[in-house]
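User: Could you walk me through two proteins back to back? I'd like the raw sequence and the structure tokens for each, with a short line separating them so I can tell where one ends and the next begins.

Assistant: Of course. Protein one, sequence then structure:
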Amino acid sequence: MHHALLYQPLDNQDVRCQVCQRRCRIPQGDRGYCRTRKNVDGELYSLIYGRVSSMRVSPIEIKPMFHFYPGSQWLSMGSLGCNFLCPGCQNWGIAHADAEKDLNSTSYVSPQEAVRLAIEQNCKGISFTYNEPTLWLEYALDCAKIAREKGLLNNFVTNGYITHDALDLIGPYLAAYRADLKGFSDRTYKQIANVPDFRGICKIIERSKVHWGMHIEIVTNIIPEFNDDKAELEDLAKWICAHLGPETPWHVTQFVPHLRLAHLSITPVGILEKAREIGLEAGLKYVYIGNVPGHPSENTYCPGCGELLLERSNFHILQNHLKGSCCRYCGQEIEGYF
């Protein structure tokens, strides 16, 4: 166990966790909603510090991030647990795991070893992903500090339900923040993630960009009958455009049935294409369709002249017609890090 960084002692040896926006009140001997943080005699401990369930070198496009050093390789790491426990989670085997009972399925990797591996594999940096990295705050922070000292970058692939205090601890060490927006209503978030108010997530994403200067890309996994409402998608796209900027990439991805939503259908491509149209009509320059290999809307096109700039297939770049960070045909700058 590793002593937690953010918690508030309460009466009767209870504590209040301050890492995610659930802010669980945890009695002595119990754990919070995510089951990765335990109250031991009035002090809060992380059960997953350094415990790695999944680790591989993978391209940035898998996150997905398309405007952040395209084609670069990242040491991608994850642990156990989540503060959402979505019913259709694709990584439910680790995200829904019990951090006490399932530790034997993980291996310990020190922060120093993680950074060494990233350097050895010629990675651009470390991506904290697979399960919710907010719960890995102490470990991610230690890794990220060392990584930055060694000239590496760091990114979070996250649901965005982190507190301001936790974000401000890790914020100076994150270069990019790939955040989910699962919908744009309390109803959708209650149904998908048991979250009563999604507005705090929006504020965190905006703070990541405005206050900490992170590169932001947004993903909405469109689930039939859950978050495919046209008006809600319009509101979501308009919010991205107004609060994060029209240059912010929005990935609308195909839901593949898992777990308690295994009875649903795969998202029809037509719904994804309509969502993309909604994003473009809202003023977004870059709206991508994800999880549909070979679809032309997984490519990057110049918002000025419309020419194909980056052709992708199954997370690999097949063609690159950028000149630096500009369109080689008309000279328009393509926002991001290229």
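----
Protein two, same layout:
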Amino acid sequence: MIISILGGLLAIFVQYLTMLLLSSSSLGKELSFQITWLNLFFAMGVSLLFGMISAIAPALNAMRIEPINAINRT
């Protein structure tokens, strides 16, 4: 979950930097860039959703291993 949150924050930061860079170019004059609270919540929600989905497979795999076998492997 922490990696998902950090990834979401990094994506928002990159989006903001891209918005700043493109706003001074000729393309930015034709397009309007805007970051709203709804965009931020949506970005974090998508990041957390994909983080949870990608955590399911390793969790299911870890549940199949007997605890004593996992201890003996280390």
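The chain has four helices and no strands.

Let me know if you want the two compared in more detail.
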